[in-house]
Amino acid sequence: MFAPDAESLAMKPLATKHLLAIEDLTPDEIHRVLDAARSFKEVNNRPIKKLPTLRGRTVVNLFLENSTRTRTSFELAAKRLSADGINFSASASATSKGESLVDTAQTLNAMNLDMVIIRHSFAGSPYILTQHMEAHIINGGDGKHQHPTQALLDLFTIREHFGHIDGLKVAIVGDICHSRVFGSLAPGLRMMGAEVTAIAPPTLMPAAPEVLGARSLYSLDAELESFDVVYMLRIQQERIERAPFPTLREYARLYGIGRDRLARIKPGGIIMHPGPVNRGVELTSEAIDTAQNLLLYQVNAGVAVRMALMYLLMGGGQDASDA
Amino acid sequence: MPLMLKNARCVDPAAGMPQPKLCDLLVRDGQIVEIGQPGSIRTENGLQHDLGGKLLVPGLVDMHVHLRDPGQEYKEDIASGGAAAAHGGFTAVLAMPNTKPITDSGSQVTYVLKKAAAVTRTRVHVAGALSLGEQGAALAEMGDMAAAGAVAFTDDGRGLQDAGMMRLAMEYAFGLGRPVLSHCQVESLVGNGQINEGVVSTRLGLAAWPAAGEEMQIARDIALAKLTGAALHIQHLTTAAGLEMVRAAKAEGLSVTCEVTPHHLFLDESALDETYNTNLKMNPPLRTAADAAALRAGLADGSIDCLASDHAPHAAHEKAVEFELAPFGTTGLETSLGLVLTELVATGQMSLAKLVERMAHAPRRILGLEPVSLAHGSIADLTVIDPDLEWVVSEEGFVSKSRNSAFIGRHLLGRATEVYVDGYASLDKGNVVEL
Predict the structure, then answer these.
(1) C-beta separation of A71 from A87 below 8 A
(2) Mean pLDDT over the full length of chain B
(3) Four-way CATH pick for A6-146+302-322: 3.40.50.1970, 3.40.50.1370, 3.90.226.10, 3.40.50.300
(4) Are B6 and B56 in contact (CB under 8 A)?
(5) In this predicted structure, what is the pLDDT of residue A322?
């Protein structure tokens, strides 16, 4: 049977059955996930990327909110571990016929699944699944609450780049108050010993960013040179009425990174973004294409991190035959 | 048939009994005809009930109840709501007008009153809507509703947003001699708010609902009470700052009263956690622990006139959904008294006399209902309380059609065992008596 490496095979499985929030993991467990991800990342660079690790296991992507990127990443992760993956998406699902999430959960549960990844527009929906299903549940993003696998792949990216996370100064910039990415990443970074600063206009700041482990700052320019990581959040380009800032132009001017701010990022510092980028808003093309921007590295790491998580949640070294 | 209640420990500050006093009490033709020392009343034919030292108080009134009838009888109806009221120790309730359709005409008031008379012993009073369809755009026929028996007016469920319309509504209600009950909330500040704005909304990623929206409308309505002379009653107060405004209005001599719910007294936003319990989703939302403490103090010192449950039943399938999709509200009729007895009376924060004032006398006074007291000549609306009865709030224990209680699992001390309306039992030995 495949072993990512001798050490990680010997790793204990995770204490938690599900991953609903980043706090479900201890800092030590986060390191374990990232260690395993490193091994899987190496596998992903091979010509033949498929491992028999989760052969016979059934993984469902329950995506009740559109997301091509995250779904594809989970789908690839499951396939590369030889799990049988099913996509259950919003348009095809019964939810559009008025079936409740509880009914969907009970229906899927009756099909004996091993793992469900849920993405949904409403906070707390993964918890509902845990109450009605036997399967392992991974939160693939729930409303404005959390997106823990994004945080894990971000932590992986940061750890691989710097060799450590503790002591780093990280700025997270943009739509803090509507961001599930922030909801997982800020506490995740704090757990790992980094110092987190949330940067946004007050209209995009939640009531109490400190409970998520971040201090707040309203200016991107004030301390830009001091950050090791500048993490740009995606801006929702939606309604104009009661928009939290006057125009995208002004937002880009105050909180976007272009040539000038790029030059001020400290040597060795990096830019990150969960994607997809609004080119010219959060980042100009120059700030996207620079080697300091690890956006595509994050995407690449995402598959490996999700493989690691599935592997460890489903019992680590145990494979289907001896489970 | 006469009814003799023996060995009751009577509490009624309005009848000179602020401390429990052991009495016998004789009821005939729906009235209290005699009250005196145990054994002092000549026994005659009729029902005799030895209360064995249980508490006897004037019948309790819950002036904020959603009976869901007409239109949402799968959640509750007048019969089941009336039964739940009796089960919780209440002799009377005030039904809110946000039914389907909205209770905004005389004929609809008549529907509720007639049906109530036919299906429940509990006295059901009706609040009519202030504005047509609670849309806030035109006055509802308040005169017609008052003639049909509506005792108060409110757009409960939402606040009347336009200040000019609210002024008109308050002036008009003033002319009819009816109080205006105000659900205070600036909707543009609430947006799609789910819970109180603060640390919990941030942690749980739920849209935030600032206290300021409630406080601004309390301030507005107090100013309008001054302008119009109308009797203003602030519904389900939730914040310390709102309470201060009511205190100031009372000090100024304005006709302003207010109520508080058990959930805003005995729960706060910290009860909300990663399990996203939809029974804790209310409108207005649970606020901070400091707010709840201020409200408890306000109820004890009388700044808050009365307790009202905002009984808001919802079917199980409506609450078994994602938090952001769930309807607002918790049931309250059957837990209200037990919570106050346990959390305020047993802990010494509030006397029984004050409980009687806040749960029996004040609501009647605010609504202009006939007073009830443990005295000769009073109507025999009575509540018997066993203060030593320990019980646990459970889904199985409700007679309401709905079980969406925020207090499931709470251990409580004390509950009503008998309720009499017009001298007839609506609750006997803890069991609801069918009409």
Answers:
(1) yes
(2) 97
(3) 3.40.50.1370
(4) no
(5) 41
Residue type, A38: R
Digit-by-digit pLDDT tens for chain B (435 residues) are: 899 999 999 999 999 999 999 999 999 999 999 999 999 998 767 889 999 999 999 999 999 999 999 999 999 999 999 999 999 999 999 999 999 999 999 999 999 999 999 999 999 999 999 999 999 999 999 999 999 999 999 999 999 999 999 999 999 999 999 999 999 999 999 989 999 999 999 999 999 999 999 999 999 999 999 999 999 999 999 999 999 999 999 999 999 999 999 999 999 999 999 999 999 999 999 999 999 999 999 999 999 999 999 999 999 999 999 999 999 999 999 999 999 999 999 999 999 999 999 999 999 999 999 999 999 999 999 999 999 999 999 999 999 999 999 999 999 999 999 999 999 999 999 999 988
Burial class of residue A238 (count of CB atoms within 10 Å of its CB; 0-12, 13-18, 19+):
exposed
Q: Which of the residues B202, B269, B272, B319 would you substitute to probe the A interface, choosing the one with the greatest number of A C-beta atoms within 10 Å? A: B202
Alpha-carbon gap: B128 to the closest alpha carbon of chain A (Å): 34
With beta carbons under 8 A apart, name residues in chain A contacting B322.
101, 120, 122-125, 128, 143
- Please give the domain boundaries of chain B with CATH numbers for all domains: 3-56+376-432 (2.30.40.10), 59-367 (3.20.20.140)
CB contact under 8 A, A145 and B317: no
ipTM at complex level: 0.91
Distance from CA of A21 to the nearest CA of B (A): 9
Q: Give me the residue from A127, A143, A212 closest to B203, CB to CB.
A: A212
| pTM given for the model | 0.94
Q: Which residues make up the CATH 3.40.50.1370 domain(s) of chain A?
A: 6-146+302-322, 148-299
Distance (Å) from the C-alpha of residue B203 to the closest C-alpha of chain A? 7
Rounded CA separation B402/B72 (Å)? 12
Cβ within 8 Å, pair B321-A100: yes
Three-state SS sequence of chain A? CCCCCHHHHCCCCCCCCCECCHHHCCHHHHHHHHHHHHHHHHHHCCCCCCCCCCCCCEEEEEECCCCHHHHHHHHHHHHHCCCEEEEEECCCCHHHHCCCHHHHHHHHHCCCCCEEEEEECCCCHHHHHHHHCCCEEEEEEECCCECHHHHHHHHHHHHHHHCCCCCCEEEEECCHHHCHHHHHHHHHHHHCCCEEEEECCHHHCCCCHHHHCEEEECCCCCCHHHCCEEEECCCCCCCCCCCCCCCHHHHHHHHCECHHHHHHCCCCCEEECCCCCCECCCECHHHHHCCCECHHHHHHHHHHHHHHHHHHHCCCCCCHHHC
Bridging pattern class, strands B90-95 and B208-209: unpaired
CB contact under 8 A, A122 and B325: yes
Distance of residue A206 Cα from the nearest chain B Cα, in angstroms = 6
Contacts of B208 in chain A (CB under 8 A): 206-207
> With contacts defined as CB-CB under 8 Å, which chain B residues touch A123?
204-206, 276, 322-324
Question: For residue A307, which amino acid is it?
Answer: M
Put simply, the answer to whether A142 touches B205 (Cβ < 8 Å) is yes
Q: Which helix (H) or strand (E) holds B390?
A: strand B382-392
The answer to whether the CB atoms of B322 and A123 lie below 8 A apart is: yes
Chain A interface includes B197 (CB < 8 A): yes
Q: What is the CATH number of domain A148-299?
A: 3.40.50.1370
Catalytic residues of B: 310
The reply to whether residue B198 touches residue A212, judged by beta carbons under 8 angstroms, is no
